[in-house]
Design brief:
Elements: E1 3-7, H1 21-31, E2 35-41, E3 43-44, E4 49-50, E5 61-65, H2 76-95, E6 101-106, H3 109-122, E7 125-130, H4 145-165, E8 168-171, H5 174-181, E9 189-192, H6 199-203, E10 217-222, H7 231-239, E11 247-252, H8 258-268, E12 272-276, H9 280-289, E13 292-295, H10 307-314, E14 319-321, H11 326-335, E15 338-340, H12 346-358, H13 360-378, H14 380-383, H15 385-392
Parallel strand pairs: 1-2, 1-6, 2-5, 6-7, 7-8, 8-9, 10-11, 10-13, 11-12, 13-14, 14-15
Antiparallel strand pairs: 3-4
Helix pairs in contact: 2-3, 3-4, 7-8, 7-12, 10-13
Length: about 400
């Protein structure tokens, strides 16, 4: 039995409702009889509140280390919060017995940097799981000269070090994996494992708690209402549709752009329903009753294969895509799981909405294709075996 330490700054909740990658990995390894500890933050990035450290209903050890609270995702206070938490992680690592292997989420960068230095110094098998590209992901957040010239370079230098000293690299997309491998020719294991989801959850019978109006064409978006996501283009495309088309867009999530988007939808007079953040089972309910899902991201954003992709294909829905990530564009085209539009192209997206609205048989075909893709690439009940292999070998 190995002593496995998993470090994930942004873990899910511990009440059994989370679909977080690292909570899932911890549970499955513990189910196999492994000794697993998850080190995470006392602060919930999603809820923007401190967690109750005693509210854990899991079969593995959870160690929550103190992190100061912050309100805004893009702020100096968040940078300070990450720095303080990273120092608490460093302190804990030196207090704890030496683990056999450390599996570390990247980002956050400050935390992964401290774990990387500790692992290298103590010759510990250091496996990283690249979830996002920082600081690249911040380029679209704010046009802030200080962020670009000072903080960007600071984060990039640390990220490069993390990639360079990893013994094994797991990544949620090939794009991110290539970023890590560009700085490290010595890894013994390198694989892309999409975030995915458990298809068992989607195959369960659902109730009508969130049944949608069957007389409307229901388009659903799941995820952050943030700066790099281009829901403005979606709203404007819907506004361009003939008034005879009865469409409702459902937005499941929260973020800094929510207030602006609510006002925009109201001013445009489009039918938009904002749900806020929902438990994952409720997200599944809404998706299953939807006709189409939308993946709208601004041009040149750092995102590649992300959470919502797994949810959309697992629900068996066609995808209206405006993301220009080559990796996801090819997935949509090669497997015919939806229609691609250029980022920010209102008329192209409008035409694609009309194609799916007017051809429900095409929607069904693309939905079936989505399920095939989900089973092949996104069913973590099967695909995560590669992750367990990287940790246990």
């Amino acid at each position: 039995m190995k002593d496995i330490l998993i470090v994930a700054h942004f873990s899910g909740e511990f009440d059994g409702t989370s679909n977080n990658r690292f909570n899932y990995i911890c549970k499955k390894l513990s189910d196999r009889g492994e000794q697993v500890e998850l080190v995470t933050s006392s602060f919930s990035h999603t809820k923007k509140e401190q967690r109750l450290k005693s509210n854990n209903e899991v079969n593995y050890k959870v160690t929550m280390l103190d992190e100061p609270s912050y309100r805004n995702n893009v702020s100096l206070k968040r940078i300070y919060s990450h720095f303080k938490f990273s120092k608490n992680v460093k302190k804990y690592l030196y207090m704890r017995n030496r683990p056999d292997v450390i599996y570390c989420a990247v980002p956050s960068i400050d935390v992964a940097y401290e774990v990387a230095r500790f692992s290298k110094r103590n010759k510990i098998d250091f496996v990283i799981d690249i979830q996002d590209l920082w600081p690249e992901a911040f380029k679209l957040a704010k046009n802030n000269l200080i962020l670009e010239k000072t903080i960007y370079n600071y984060i990039e230098k640390k990220a490069n070090y993390i990639y360079s000293v990893a013994s094994k690299i797991i990544s949620v997309s090939q794009t991110y994996l290539n970023r890590g491998l560009a700085l490290n020719n010595n890894v013994t294991f390198a694989e892309t494992v999409y975030l995915g989801t458990s298809l068992k959850l989607f195959n369960q019978k659902i109730d009508n708690k969130f049944s949608l109006d069957p007389f409307k064409f229901n388009i659903t978006y799941v995820g952050t209402l943030g700066f790099s996501y281009d829901l403005q283009t979606v709203f404007l495309a819907i506004k361009e549709l003939p008034s005879s088309i009865n469409i409702c867009i459902h937005l499941l999530g929260d973020g800094p752009e929510k207030f602006r988007l609510e006002n925009m939808a109201s001013n445009l007079g489009i039918n938009a329903k904002f749900y806020g953040r929902l438990p994952y089972n409720d997200v599944i309910r809404v998706l299953k009753f939807s006709d189409v899902c939308v993946n709208s991201i601004k041009a040149n954003a750092a995102q590649s294969i992300i959470n919502k992709h797994a949810d959309y294909v697992a629900a068996g829905k066609p995808i209206l895509n405006t993301q220009d990530s080559d990796e996801f564009v090819r997935l949509v085209e090669n497997y015919q799981i939806g229609l691609n539009s250029e980022p920010g192209n209102i008329m192209s997206l409008k035409e694609n909405i009309l194609i799916l609205y007017n051809d429900r048989e095409l929607c069904k075909i693309m939905g079936r294709n989505s399920l095939k893709v989900a089973k092949k690439y996104f069913n973590r009940d099967d695909t995560y075996d590669v992750i367990y292999q990287s940790i246990l070998e």
